[in-house]
Amino acid sequence: MQTYIVRRLLIGAIILFVLSVAVFILLRIVPGSDPAELRCGLNCTPEGIKQAREEMGLNDPYVVQYWDWLSGVFTGDLGTSVVNFRPVGDSIKARFPVTFELMVLTLIITIVVGIPFGVASAVWKNSPIDYGVRVSAIFGLAVPSFWLATLVLILPATWWGYAPPLGAGYIHIEEDLWGNLKQFVPPAAVLAVGSAAGVMRLTRSSLLEVLRQDYMRTARAKGLAERALIVRHGLKNSLIPVVTVLGLQMAGLLGGAIIVEQIFTLPGLGAFTFEALFRKDFPVVQTMTLYAGITVVLLNLLVDISYAWLDPRIRYS
Amino acid sequence: MSKDVAIASPSFFGEEAARPEARLSQRIAKLGQLARQNPLGTIGLIIILVFAAMAVFAPLIAPYAPTDTRAGGVDESMSWSHLFGTNRAGQDIFSRVVHGSRISLSVAFISVLGGGTVGILLGIISGYLGGIVDSTIQRTVDAAIAFPALLLLLIITQALGPSFGTIVFALMLAVIPGVTRVVRGTVLSEKNNQYVEAARASGAWAPRILLRHILPNVVALGIIVMTTLLGAIILAEAALSFLGLGIPSSASWGQDVNKARQSLPYHIPAAIFPGAAITLTVLGFNLLGDAIRDIADPRLRGSR
Lengths: 317, 304
Description:
- The structure holds two protein chains of two kinds.
- Chain A is mostly helical.
- Chain A is built from twelve helices and no strands.
- The model of chain A has no long low-confidence stretch (mean pLDDT 80).
- By secondary structure, chain B is mostly helical.
- Helix content of chain B is 76%, strand content 0%.
- Chain B is built from 13 helices and no strands.
- Chain B has helices spanning 2-8, 10-17, 20-37, 39-56, 58-61, 93-129, 131-146, 149-160, 164-191, 194-201, 206-242, 253-262, 268-296.
């Protein structure tokens, strides 16, 4: 198991390296995006730009620039924003709780909605419940989250004059639980629609597959109650693909966070990345790419390790 | 897969060509049967055909030009003269939705076709050559699949500037990894088949084996994967437009939803209809993609 984890982490490191080099090059070869101008400010002279380029090390060869950035990452210096001069590490620390809470809430809603309905759909196959679940899953996968978020904002505002706390900054959960939930439940619910739809579909098809197995008939023959049969034998054995998809979905959530944090004005990492992109804030984009990559690699590893727990036959060596 | 091979065999066409009228009615009967067995896929196909017709005949269907600010008053609600009402700029929302299908569909088709072709080629190269080429391509594919697609799309379009070319390019990059991986897997298993061994033994050189023997077997699979990706690509393009990095155009669904979100006081029809159009189109492609995958290759069932 340990060698397996080490090997996976090494492969992960290679992937992250490829990714960071690609983004690094992409951010630099393109015309019309000179962070030195941003650094220099509004009343900028050609000399000022030159000086800014020198200070930011933009005149160094790319290899040197990349090395500077990479060694900074390893020593805990994640770079400095060229827009507000704040260390990127500080901004990430301040904004991480927002995106983390959004992801956790989304994950909870996804599991609480997705798995039970998926199970019901499989157990009562071809019943009205099954059709209801399947149709809503099909729609859930097709609805764009930005549209749903827009409607969640617009419809209550028009009909009842209600709006979630927009532009209020981060309402800390320990200070004002109700305000915090008002701020986080709508965006999390919007993000969960797509992922819950995927989980419902997958739970259904995976459980149907398991219900056909011989050991299920054996378990039923030995007189196990239907409920215990489905939860203990059926569900646990059908969860592997579901867990994989959950992992992938959580990894993709940073993309979704960009959209909903923008719409619901949440000061999280998604909004941070998006603003940085728009302002061509290289160091921030570069570091956030790495951050997203690390999240994905770790989540995938976590998913694979959980397989061994879900299915004891799986052993890593 | 075996079904495709049977249809493509020369004896099948030769035999049928002798009785063209029999072939036609047989084909229609077969299609009807297929449609009855896959009602959801049929619904999907109908939705797509409707939207495709809308895109092709947009100027004939839309009562107003999409940019015409004098089509009606400001924020009119639904009526016979303005089916979906009008927006803040006084433009006819129905006409904008009809015209918006052009960008969505053309971008999706071009990028899936282009990215799919590159993906198939890369998959064949990767699977057939193996070794360092294979591992280089596969690690790159891993990196691309692992990364949040929307973030990658945003970085590329923001770096290169939003235009038709760059967005198609960025979306192609999003299509390539998935297709490459599936095709590579098939090539790996095809490579060890006896017929490839026989071809190699009889002195056929590598490109010939690839073109004549392996390509036909993986193209079908590649096309299936491409169909299932069309819906996702439409969603991605709409999200880019929504975030202001879409193709500059006269009418775009994603942009219109964004505009409706930003203009206070809110006018509900302006937000509802463009988004509903995106949802329906994606729904159509997903339903068709699922059906095609189930018909063509049961092994892929539930792979999404």
